[in-house]
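Fold this sequence, please.
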Amino acid sequence: NMGQEVMSVRRDFKCCAGCCWIACCNACQFELIIEAPPGNVVGSVRQECSYLPPNYTLRLADSDQPVLYVDGPICVCQGAWCCEQEFKVMTSERQNQIGVISKHFSGLIKEYFTDADNFGVQFPLDLDVRLKAVMLGAVFLIDFMFF
């Protein structure tokens, strides 16, 4: 890429955002806008209202309808004593899992003494490249909100 930016992720400030149950109000939902290349919006990740597990919708820029859903675990464990956390990537009907975003356990010392985290993203090879970029944006939002 010769030192050029290939992707940009933008999140506007919202003072009451973060909690799953507060996300029922648009003013309180976290939302990321993904641009690839910077200046060309390809999609967004939006936090959805839920009472326990964190839920997100992945949308392309040319449609306001959700294309994919990300369903988190009921209890998101944080800190050095936690193991792997999985967020399932589901089809728009929420019937089939097509991928997963996972936070990998990095070892007790690294988890306890640093703020560094390791994530993995799995998706079908034939998935639209714009959705792959939006899934990477979802990783950033999940990391920001929980880890």
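DSSP finds two helices and eight strands in the chain. The helical segments are 108-113, 129-146.
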